[in-house]
Design goal:
Chain lengths: 386, 50
């Protein structure tokens, strides 16, 4: 073959794709196809897994021009990476869109639900410790733990700072497990609660309506407090709350609609395919990725258990009993987790409607996951120096 | 300091800080809600969007 190419140099140009092909590329095509199948056939986070799957295929065609880093011939995925992920722009824009979609009224009515959301971030830190036992560096372990925030943009934001080489697998793990909340959470909850606990009814007495002024001032107040505590989190919490302010102001309906729809769709499209573009075989096919996928599941289990056990702990001291299942909604997978728990409650007792409480905790999870992300962002560089 | 010790230190610092921040959020949110109560007819449609 080499002699043939020496005799006819143009053959090398024509056959470079076939000559450069290895089994690793083919395996990555299968991984890409699996993600596309999960998106298209199983409806698992299709808006993200489909572009990620196709991006993975584009990145694993030998000599792919899509990921070329040759000066003057940069591939579009490389350009998108530098302009949207390397500088953390895409995750921040996604947060603006999420903020515009969120209604914090259930949280404002009952601020206590924020405690469950704080407890449900336990998985982040427990998983980070577990990851170090498996040989990951501290920075990588902390970035893996963030999968437990159940918050894709925060995972990408932290990984792009402290674990760039793991960005692809971390993002895939975060979004896959977010879509698997209905599969992961119910068995964990059943394992640590009794039937009687799952049947606890929660009333809606003394629920005061929330004024528009309160909803309008809430995002400004949260940004100021979070920003003062962890200035490094301002980009994340600030963009989330900016989106919400645009929605609640009531005077920028066009901007709010744009953030919720066009911005969310456009950035999701670009974010997904760009992440897929980072999934080159050499980076992805190793034991570390398998460990990350396993640790991602561990993070979700710890999160769920953390929230539920905290609710059970509160029941020991509270006169009004809380259905401990709502503690599991403290993760950021919104509104899926709230709906899954509300359905579980109805399955246990068809007259038990806890959806309002569950959604309140779930909305609080949006805020708590960003606060947790901010703390991790602040603590990684400080502790890494020690 | 080993990676595990650093991760444990992060947990020991971050979890209590997290709860402290959340308690501040709770207090501030409660204050804000009390400061600007809704007139009885306000907040239409909040309960049907979940």
């Amino acid at each position: 073959m080499e002699a043939l190419i020496q005799q006819y140099p143009w053959l090398d140009e024509l056959l470079m794709g076939f000559i450069g092909l290895s089994w690793k590329h083919v395996v990555m095509w299968a991984v890409g196809a699996l993600l596309i199948w999960l998106a298209a056939a199983k409806d698992y986070e299709p808006a993200l897994l489909l572009p990620i799957g196709f991006g993975a295929i584009l990145a694993n065609i030998p000599h792919s021009s899509a990921i070329s880093q040759i000066k003057g011939e940069e591939g579009f995925l490389f350009v998108l990476y530098n302009s949207g992920i390397g500088n953390e722009l895409f995750p921040v824009l996604i947060f603006v869109a999420i903020g515009a979609m969120c209604d914090f009224a259930p949280l404002i009515r009952n601020p206590k639900v924020m405690l469950f959301a704080a407890a449900a971030q336990f998985g982040i830190f427990a998983t980070a410790v577990a990851a170090t036992f498996l040989g990951f560096s501290f920075e990588h372990a902390a970035s893996i733990g963030i999968i437990g925030a159940a918050d894709g943009p925060t995972t990408i934001y932290v990984a792009s700072r402290f674990a760039v080489e793991l960005l692809g697998p971390l993002s895939v793990a975060a979004y896959c497990y977010m879509s698997l909340v209905p599969v992961i959470q119910p068995p964990v909850i059943r394992a640590i609660t009794s039937k009687a606990e799952r049947q606890i009814k929660m009333g809606y007495e003394n629920v005061e309506p929330v004024s528009q002024t309160t909803k309008f001032l809430f995002p400004i107040m949260i940004t100021l407090i979070a920003g003062m505590v962890a200035p490094i989190s301002v980009a994340l919490i600030g963009s989330l709350m900016f989106g919400n302010l645009v929605k609640e102001s009531g005077v920028t309906e066009n901007l709010s609609a744009c953030a919720e729809n066009e911005l969310a769709n456009l950035v999701t499209l670009l974010l997904g395919i760009t992440i897929g573009g980072t999934m080159e075989a050499e980076r992805f096919l190793n034991i570390q990725v398998l460990l990350i996928m396993a640790l991602g599941a561990v993070a979700f289990v710890f999160d769920t258990a953390g929230g539920v056990l905290f609710a059970k702990l509160m029941n020991l001291f509270s006169k009004t009993k809380i259905n401990p299942m709502i503690g599991a909604c403290g993760i950021s997978a919104f509104p899926m987790s709230g709906r899954v728990i509300a359905k579980m409650a109805l399955k246990e007792d068809p007259s038990n409607f806890i959806i309002q409480h569950a959604i309140g905790v779930n909305v609080a999870g949006q805020v708590a996951s960003v606060v947790a992300g901010g703390l991790v962002l602040a603590l990684i560089p400080a502790l890494a120096k020690m | 300091m080993s990676a595990t010790l650093k991760a444990l230190t992060m947990m020991a610092i971050a979890l209590p800080t997290m709860f402290a921040v959340i308690l501040i959020f709770m207090a501030a949110t409660t204050g804000l809600h009390k400061m600007f109560p809704a007139p009885p007819e306000e907040e239409s449609g909040d309960d049907d969007d979940d």
